[in-house]
Amino acid sequence: MNTLSVVTTIDPSKGEPIERIPRADRAHIDAALSAAHDRFTAWRISSADERAEIFARIAGTLRAQKEQLARTAVREMGKPLTQALAEVEKCAACCDYFAAHTGRMLADVPIESSAQQSYAAFRPLGVVLAIMPWNFPYWQVFRAAVPALMAGNTMLLKHAENTTRCALEIERIFKESGAPDGLFATLVIGHDDANALIADERVIGATLTGSERAGVAIASAAGSQLKKVVLELGGSDAFIVLADADLDATAKRAVQGRFQNNGQSCIAAKRFIVEDAVYDDFVERFIRFAAAQKVGNPMDASTELGPVARADLMSALHEQVQGTLDQGATPLLGGRPLDEPGNFYPATIVGDVRPGMRMFDEETFGPAAAVVRANDAREAVALANRSSYGLGCSIHTKDLEKAQVLARDVEAGMVFVNSIVASDPRLPFGGVKRSGHGRELSFFGIHEFTNVQTVSIG
């Protein structure tokens, strides 16, 4: 078989191939697109209750097959098994939430005007192309798909190549749960085929979670066709520690916020900005708790930190760490790959990081944290904003009123107080600046791929 016509997935904990999966040919792509376009005709007029019934079944299938699905994710991208199990459960909970609340969220909104009656209605648009990453191979897809499909659209998925089996498992879950043909399909395709789909008149828009570079490419392709995009891109989230914070609790949250999912999350805390008065005390705790994590086989239920998903990503992370140290930062913990098979990089903490250094200016995607000094709370917020990204931010303090005042000045799509930044089906998810635009999840996310139609009756 021609190597260009297959995708080979790699086990990041061993560096060994898992399987070779054929790419979709032109006929398969066109058949899937035609099916999605045809299904939209009936799906768009189905009731919220009919859609909810299908997604309730999908939630049940996810839970029944949670162990199998989680192990597939671990094999392909290396996250610890306990976290993979939680990811599948979160997808099921998302299905449950939108099944229960879509009717209310899509209800007509009465608006007073000079007409006898006027209101805004939410009409679905058509076939949405989803381009999704590998780091949360199930959740990223369900986070985009469930609101869009419950709104009455249909969807085609182009997933990251290294999690191709996870992508095919999602399609299988839809089919086994009784979803109608054409509602959702996975296509094993490359960038050229994705661009061709965006150009096809049957596709009405695209939703992407990925890198800034990918976002620019997809936005350009969609923009040339005057099509809607939702972009959830990179992040360099600030984790602000004020002088009055509970340092033990905050340091434990810092470890979770930076190192969960092997540090590979767009909303992971990456720049730890600490008031100078408690800098040393916080750093001591942060190092101690981070070093205590068990690194090893991600299939072991006791493992807390597994391998980086790909060898090239581990190399890029190491270059960022070494580059930052060469610029004058202080090594505090870790700092080089483990000398064993697989892409294992230990928990790494670099102190005295300043603007202009690589780990301050760039997104670090892996288990490495940059700690930054701030004179006071206002400077901490200014440092948090000194980034081209604006996805999330967390503020840690006992003064909740002060935290809410500071939050007004944070240039990010999400601000969490005394907790790590997280996605929740009930809350809008998305960023500003070069972290993208548009929102996923919640009342706001379900309307992204709808026509907000004004109806006025005179």
Short structural summary:
The protein has 458 residues and is of the alpha/beta class. Helix content is 41%, strand content 21%.
General description of the model:
It contains 15 helices and 20 strands. It is of the alpha/beta class. The chain has two domains: 3-233 and 435-457, Aldehyde Dehydrogenase, Chain A, domain 1; 237-424, Aldehyde Dehydrogenase, Chain A, domain 2 (3-Layer(aba) Sandwich), CATH 3.40.309. The strands form five sheets. It has a seven-stranded mixed sheet, with helices on both faces. It has a six-stranded mixed sheet with strand order 7-6-5-8-9-19, with helices on both faces. A three-stranded antiparallel sheet has the order 3-4-20, with no helix packed on it. The radius of gyration is 22 Å and the shape is globular. The model has no long low-confidence stretch (mean pLDDT 97).
